[in-house]
Amino acid sequence: MTGVTKAVCGHPAIARAMLDGGVVGLAESRLTNVERLRSGGIMSPIVMIRTPVPSQSGRIARNCDASYNTEIDVIRRLASAARRTGNTHGIILMVEMGDMRDGIMPEDVAAVAQQVSDLPGVLLKGIGANFACLNGMVPNAMVMARFSALASQVESAIGSRFEAVSGGNSANIPWALVHGARSRVNDLRLGEAILLGVDPVSGTRIDGLHTDAFTLVAEIIETKAKTAPVHRFSTRPSWPPLKLVAVNDQPMRSILAVGEQDTDVAGLSMPDGILFVGGTSDHLVVQNSRLRLAVGSEVSFQMNYAALMRAMNAPDVCKVLHNAIPFPAVTPSPHGGRFLETA
To answer: What are the extents of the domains in the chain?
Structure first.
């Protein structure tokens, strides 16, 4: 397993927890996150899983052990950058297997692999595939068998054996638990499954995993009885009609100091008794069917992957780590500033 830290913005302590849990390396999609990991003392292998930005080739070659690639021109840039630093950069070719996002068409992989094999400065380490990201295609036994067969075909064409056959992401876990041992796949890139303990396709909890490792806490800034106004010259209310919940015969709404700038409000799980009304850039509006929510009190929410990713990126959301294993002090990153906050 490779632990994907992009949803937590390369948080060094969370990366360390993944490594302590047994992942063999880390994967990132943003170079600034990789640099946070390195400045935070993470020296384990890190792979760039998004096709590298050409203008960042030099920094990627310096900070990443390998990268997933689909364009030979980008690979040439990485090779040139690696030669300048005296390093060898690993290349994993991403193959299009049905998700229709990033990937080389299967019939073209062998030719690209041969070109990479001939380039000094880079080392072809294997191939990878992606599923259930853009079009929701769930990996099944037939598709994964084709991917394993392709790995063997390309190896035969270039005359060497791959170190990595990376079969996908957290969506592959159900397949891997049943069919993985009989395939060529020897790596999965796991983020959502590790961080949130759920299958990203069905949203259900994965047996044995916790789903409450992350909690978003927001403060109530207003609680009032409200009714939809009726304009004098219009029969339409100012917003779509909504059934209000009465508390002590008064329809009550509360506003929390969190909004779309901070997280994906639609990706928050409402606590029992609290109903989601809507959200704007700075406000989350809810109703409470049990008791009045006092101004200054806090409400805790569980998050889906999108909500977690946005909250971790939000500068106004304080990240507090509980029960942390002692970790080396974090030095300022030249690109990201101080990142780790613990309590």
So the answer is: 2-196, 216-303
